[in-house]
Amino acid sequence: MSLCVDIHKKLGGFSLDMQAEFPDAPTAVIGASGSGKSMLLRCIAGIVVPDRGHIALGEKTWYDSTARTCLPPQRRHAGYLFQQYALFENRTVAGNIMMGMRGTKQEKQQACRALMERFQLTALAEHRPAQLSGGQKQRTALARMLGAQPEVLLLDEPFSALDTHLRGEVRQQMAEVLARHVGVSLLVTHDFSEAMQLCSRAAVVSGGRIVEQGSCIDLWHNPKTRACAELTGMRNFFPLPDGMQPNDSAPCCLGIRPEDLRPACGGDTVTVSGTVQRMLPGIHTDQAIVQTSHGMLLWTVPHDADSPPQAGDPVMLSADPDRFHILKIDKT
Question: Start and end of every ABC transporter domain (predicted)?
Fold first, then answer.
């Protein structure tokens, strides 16, 4: 069943206006800091009440401002993984995991043992959160969330509190959790590569609105908005040349990825000229920072380039026509 969301929430000078239908598939909610993605999860979970709108999982209404329906969080059966895990410091690992479980004491203990074995926590059963590493806290929070047998998983930037060397390990476990869950899963992140590794679909959030939705692969190859393009790693944006403005009146710009740029050649219809300001060496490629009339441009230069540029060189760059992207500029 799908999760349907149509809500409005005013927070000071910020407005959240979200309309989306999330299917039975892992979906990344991706956006820059302050875009509203975490607030969306809090509204879905019932932690924050919208000003108006509707939230429903299948035929079950969770929130409806017109009907004055607002189920409390515990009746929504949504598992929420907080950025900082929100473990109970006065409880052991086993005690935290059993929080929210339903059933007899024996059934809870049996389910807890199974989850501790699944997440390699058995030896830590009597430890308290202060005695755990970041990865161990993450696994404990995951086990606690799954112990309540939620219908919907809400994961709020689950790797943000982890050191870089732990993220790969925990990411594998998260991929397994998402693959085994039957139902809606929403993963909040600002990292598009993380979204692609863990989710088949994504919703791009900018300025409190969902501006694009689709498969992660399609959004990577064919972004329609600057907000989405920036999240996928596109760094170069220019005013549209004459004749390229779409028929609708929405303001647009031209985007190009650093790795898609090359020296211009005869027949190129779109070119940009500038001067190399600095070369940044890399393992497989170098990065050229080029000053143009539209600002700084980033150009990825292969190590085997015929004539690698040097600081101070004038350059004229272009790309194959299908590498240029016409992008709507979001009104935030």
Answer: 2-232
Dihedral sign from CA coordinates of 163, 166, 171, 177: negative
Closest CA to 332 of 254, 251, 256, 255: 251
| Structural domain span for residue 123 | 3-230
pLDDT of 120-173, one tens digit each? 999 999 999 999 988 888 889 989 999 999 999 999 988 876 777 777 777 888
- All residues at 6 or more sequence positions from 3 whose CB lies less than 8 Å from its CB, including other chains: 21, 22, 44, 55, 56, 57, 152, 184, 186
**Which CATH number fits the domain that encloses residue 246?**
2.40.50.140
| One domain for residues 189 and 305 | no
C-alpha to C-alpha distances, 36 to 14, 17, 29, 32, nearest whole angstrom: 9, 9, 10, 9
